[in-house]
Amino acid sequence: MEHSLYAILWYFLIYAFLGWCLEVVFCTLRTGKWVNRGFLNGPVCPIYGFGMVIVLMALEPLADRPLALFVGSALLTSALELVTGWALKTLFHTTWWDYSKQKFNLGGYICLKFSLAWGLVGMFAVKVLHPPVNRFVEWMPRPVGLALLVLWMAVFVADVAVTLRTLIGLGRDLGELEKVVATLRKGSDTISRNLGDAALAADERLEEGRQALPQKLAELEARRDFLQARILDTRLFGAARLMKAFPAMKDLRHSELLAELKETLHERLHR
Predict the structure, then answer these.
(1) 240 Cβ neighbours under 8 A, 6+ residues apart
(2) Predicted TM-score of the model (pTM)
(3) Where do the structural domains in the chain lie, given as residue ranges?
(4) CB 110 within 8 A of CB 99
(5) Which end of the chain has fewer CB atoms < 10 Å from its terminal CB, N or C?
(6) In the predicted model, is pLDDT for residue 214 greater than 80?
């Protein structure tokens, strides 16, 4: 069955929303607390939208062949999950999920258990879920559907831009925070050297360097506190939301620091 671009974009948004609902329900049942599990701020999980569009385009002709539909769904969705995980790691030096402790995993990106689960989800979606979704898209008056589609796609693109900015900012803040913390840990000797070799070359300037040391320490501590507060900001568009949504998230460049911040965030949220 051929689908128009209009229908494909609606499928993407609908399944991205349904995928977000699935993730939220799953995490809520597992943790006992509501969590916005989406990569974006809004109620969408793009990987579900892309996954279902790919499955529909490639496998809808196999709707009457359950085994082929199951295998195809498992393979296509696993490939998408693998590529997405690799891309996030390559572009942002972060991993968002980790299946390395699961049997028959590939690089921690995918594993047999979830691949089989995605195969079943794909079968259910194509045979049971998609027919009413398709009828809904066809039922909407085209002018109304176009207006809503433009609106939601504009919000989606803006959300993507904001989230990417947050990720880039998080990496930058972690890098600066790690440098500040390392300098503070080294103590006054390192800070004195950073005041300049000339300040240590003469006694009268050495005294000036010693007098400047407390101020330099205070400045570094203030900068550390500011960076920590910005990273741990729990407002809608902050990095802390991503840390809450993806507890297994790791930054490959600043793994220990991010782990400490996540522990601090966890303690604040459970006081």
Answers:
(1) 231, 232, 233, 234, 265
(2) 0.83
(3) 5-139, 161-269
(4) yes
(5) C
(6) no
